[in-house]
Amino acid sequence: MDNRYGSLHYPSMRKHLPSLLALTLFMLFTSNASAQPRFGIEASVGQSIGVTTYVDNAVYVQDNQPFIADENADSGISLALTFVFTRVEVGLDLRWFSRDSVTVNYAGTENLPEGRIRPDGSVDDAGIQYEAVEPITLNVARGRGSLFVGSLFAGYRFYLYDGESVQFYVPAVGGLVMTHVQEDSLEYEFGLTANTGIGMSVDVSSPVAIFATTRLHGLVTPTYGRQTDASRAATKTGETTFSATMDSFIFASLTLGIQFAIR
Q1: SS3 content of the chain, % helix, strand, coil (to 5)
Q2: Per-residue pLDDT reduced to its tens digit, 46-98
Q3: 68: CB partners within 8 A, 6+ apart
Q4: What are the pLDDT digits (tens) for 97-154?
């Protein structure tokens, strides 16, 4: 019987079997034993900066002259606690934005009558006429409360690269948001938020990893402040019905943190 296949091919296959087995085990290990924790906790700190304004068409008074201005949400600190379930993230983040400037778009054609500034600092400008001006940014007095933004969120991480010690991912996140200007008598508003960006995680020593993310966030809430004031301002500035009833805000963030893999 011709045993060429037994004498030639079978020994050759047996010679390479250890290498094939090692390669198979390596592929199984790298596909199932990546640094993604089945359950982990992330604690982070970061910086946020407003891309757009949140409180728009607010009446700002200087030397008794009223102006219609957008309140700039400048930079501020952020804190976050996130629970990670393999590719799912659920958590809470807290952000503060300074309010040190306004961008003036319209100027009143007459001084504001006495008694028009309410106890909460808002202005009753009924009857005041405005004219458009070249937008100008003005610094305002210190001591104004920060814009606070807190959110409960959940999302999914799409991994671009899932190595044994380094991972790159794109988060897609949505949730509930609460906003508050931290001054007496000012309200809390609730709405919706979403964000995406890119993140990187690097193992330091099991079970600890460090990570960094940069994200673009958006949120929408009912109009912050009195609805009657917002409707009057929208009429005077030619804004849409949406602008009169809703406020939106876009901001960017950079976050650094530590991840602890529980299991």
Answers
A1: 15, 55, 25
A2: 999 999 999 988 888 888 888 989 999 999 999 999 999 989 999 999 999 99
A3: 57, 58, 59, 60, 104, 105, 106, 130, 233, 236, 237
A4: 999 899 999 998 888 888 888 887 788 888 888 999 999 998 886 668 899 999 999 9
The Cα 39–Cα 30 span in angstroms is 18
Q: What sign results for the dihedral spanned by CA atoms 152, 49, 252, 135?
A: positive
Tokens 């690097």 -> residue = 202
The three-point CA angle 142-97-213 to 5° equals 150
- Taking the C-alpha atoms of residue 199 and residue 256, their distance in angstroms, rounded to an integer, is 10
What is the bridge-based pairing of β-strands 40-50 and 88-97?
Answer: unpaired
Report yes or no: 93 and 150 within 8 Å, Cβ to Cβ. Answer: yes
Dihedral angle of Cα 222, 228, 232, 234, to the nearest 10 degrees: 10
Backbone angles phi, psi at 12, to 5 degrees: -65, -40
Q: Which residues of 172-183 are buried (b: 16+ CB within 10 A; e: fewer)?
A: ebebebbbbbee
pTM: 0.80
Bridge partners, 198 (sequence order): 214
Q: Which pair of tokens denotes residue 257?
A: 């943190």
Structure tokens at 160: 């671009």
Q: Which residues contact 56 (CB under 8 A, 6 or more apart)?
A: 70, 71, 243, 247
Residue 235 phi, psi (nearest 5): -65, -45
User: What is d(CA 78, CA 163) in angstroms, rounded to the nearest whole number?
Assistant: 29
